[in-house]
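Async update (no meeting this week)

Hi team, since we skipped the sync, here's where things stand on the single-chain job. The sequence we agreed to prioritize is pasted below, unchanged from the tracker. I ran it this morning and attached the output directly underneath so nobody has to dig for it. Comments welcome in thread, and please keep replies under the output.
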Amino acid sequence: MRKEDKLEKKFARSNRLYQKSAGWFFTVRQGAEFGPYDSQCNAEKSLRNFISFLI
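Output:
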């Protein structure tokens, strides 16, 4: 927290990973959906790779 911030802000987090009948997916803040992936593990790896690409 920055010293000029008066109140601590709480941010809501949502689970970016979810499963549909077609497989596992993840979403990003802009609302784009990525998938399907054959497993939750593969979707998580792809999400981590996506985030790494951005930073």
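Quick observations from my side:
The chain has a mean pLDDT of 85.
Strands lie at 17-20, 23-27, 33-37.
Reply here if anything looks off.
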